[in-house]
Request: fold
Amino acid sequence: MNGLATVGRDLGRMLQAQSLMFFISVAVPVLWGEYFAVPALVVAGILALGVGTTLSRRFEGAPDPGKLHGMITAASGWFLVAVFGSLPFTLLAWSAAVDVPWVHVPADVATPTLAAFRNPVNGVFESMSGFTGTGLTMTVHEDRLPRTLQWWRSFTEWVGGVGVIVLTTAILARPGSGSLTLYESEARSEKIHPSIVSTVRTIWWIFLLYTVVSTGLLWLVGMPPWDAVNHAMTGLATGGFSVTDNSIAAYDSALVEYALVPVMVLGSIAFPVHYLLLRGDFRQLVADLQTRWVFLSFSLGSVALTGLLLIGGAYDSVAGAARYGLFQFVSAMSCTGFQTAGNLGSTWSPLSKLAVTGGMVVGAAAGSTVGGIKLIRAVTLSRGIRFRIRGLFVPDSAVRTLRIDDRDLSKTEVAREFEEAAVIALLWFVFLGVGTAVLLFALPTGPGGVTVTNMFFEVASAQGNVGLSTGITGPGMPAVTKIILLFNMWIGRLEIIPVAVLLAALFDGGLAASPSVTRD
Reply:
């Protein structure tokens, strides 16, 4: 029962922190004159605050979380936050449908685009896509949404990029309150300061600084101020939601695209490295293993994709292929999901899409805002395999170490880290296959139907929290495909293990008790 109390208290705190997001967002409809949207945000905020306060007070004396309950809290908390985050979409859509007298929604707002969110599944999908930083959307015409929902979509990605638990810790946590366990359960491990509370607050200051700088950069290259704010938020969070109907392609500007590339790269680098860079330690650009690989992977991948686009005849010139190859590969591997190439399923060759899929699967640096398997795990797997093969040629008594980044790992440490990376990579591909199989079952194939390549691409985009689409995702999808992609986004953001722990706990009663003896 203590375990349930711990999870309940921490879920309550997460909802309390989320309620602040709703209340802060009320400023947007007030400033833009969209007063019809105020009730939806206020009601959502009151519900989140009420449920959150009830849970946190009811279980106030619960013990601090251990590793098990930290993972359960992370998995269930992210899902719960996505459900509550869907309320502005659903409430506003139904307000327009029933024409509540004191919440009159103008006719130019009550469009089919907004009406799609009357389906609660679409609202939860949009919210999960936002908080997980995915960017796949149930919105057909983003530019026809009220500014309030455009903001809410960007705000969910901005907060979700850093982490819901990181937000909760920054606002509500006290030193020594089990915050480190929760922080690590959200797929983070490195600290900037000895205190975890100081660490998360520093992360938020860095993120806020970069958002302001990115907004200014995008405005300088010609983006309207509203667009610049939203794209700076979603670009830095590597989320990819847009306020235009055709993502970044709507601007048809090479200058805008080249300005967004460094914004996406910033989101791909681990926060501890950003902290050191801001303190003047520029050696980290080459000294940090992941940062080196970020730049190397982006460069090589962009060149390779450019070549494939030229060979496939997607573009007539080297300059055109290089422009789209650079932007789309960085967008894919940074897990941002901005698109300039329109519907990738229409003109790109299967090999080009496969190259983009590879970038989405791997992702960039752990400890950043990106999804995917993460570069450090890819490096650990490749070097671990080489370490084991070379071990066959030396005596068992030999003392061997493996250097990864600035750490010299013993054979035992290598085995532990290799096992962790291998398990996550294996599960990643298993669920990638499951998602593809569901789409293959639910969507039409054959002449005029959806190709398996495009299905695989879409699932990889969802699970990698990327958001690039071949045109499959939309409000007209069968419900089962929405649910499986929603599931893929959820497990992808939390790197699968916490969700697996939650599901196991629900089936075997692990939430209430932690048995001392188990049989697997």
About this structure: The longest strand covers residues 402-404. Residues 2-188 form one domain. Residues 513-520 have pLDDT under 50 and may be disordered. The beta strands are 402-404, 407-409.
